[in-house]
Amino acid sequence: MARTITDPREAAAALGALVKGAGNTVFFGGAGVSTASGIPDFRSADGLYNQHFDYPPEVMLSHGFYVEHTREFFDFYRSRMCAPDAKPNQAHLKLAELECEGLVSAVVTQNIDGLHQAAGSRNVVELHGSTHRNVCQRCGHVHSQEWVLKTEGVPRCEACGGPVKPDVVLYEEALDEAVITAAIRAIASCDLLIVGGTSLVVYPAAGLLRYFGGDKLAICNLQPTPQDASADLVCACDIARSFDW
Questions:
Q1: 92, 116, 128, 132: which one is catalytic?
Q2: What separation in angstroms does the CA of 242 have from each of 11, 113, 129, 135, 234?
Q3: Residues 110, 93 contacting (CB under 8 angstroms)
Q4: Mean pLDDT rounded to a whole number for the chain
């Protein structure tokens, strides 16, 4: 039966002990990892789905909307999907530190903000891409997030004038097969899997847990998840404080 801890200090101590006792740890994270850095998630009270826009957020985040309403898509992208002022929080920083120490082998993330890399993590599998890569659909030139934020309307490639599309997976688009394979390999090879900041109800990402066959499973999430009963440790508290050890 899972050990559930709500006190952040106790959770941090228990999580730290699990990591130090494991041979190979992988972290699998979702939007809740970034909310501690001030980036809103989708489904919470302050999330995007509970804010008012001219179109539903799930529509504006679709491939069809990007194609048919490109200007409106980029207005939403610049104002809601990019987070240039966000900084890594304690969870990001601790994971980078643990990778440097050889204790964490990979971070698999559903987030597109690049905060794991900003914190220093090197082996990051980005399931949904990144706002820091914006690719010309004609010549393949990659533009930075900073470049896109300085443009107005529909950005055009500096190199050839072609249309630019963020390297993020939109609704109606499939995940990259090579990225999925890298995530499966990481999750299947670890002894300890830490799942953080995700409700584990959104597929196909949540389905990656079925590839885990290691010794210990830890879940760090404020709200219950469908996998809590299968976990060895549940940290039901602020994720950044759970990594403060």
A1: 128
A2: 6, 21, 26, 36, 10
A3: no
A4: 93
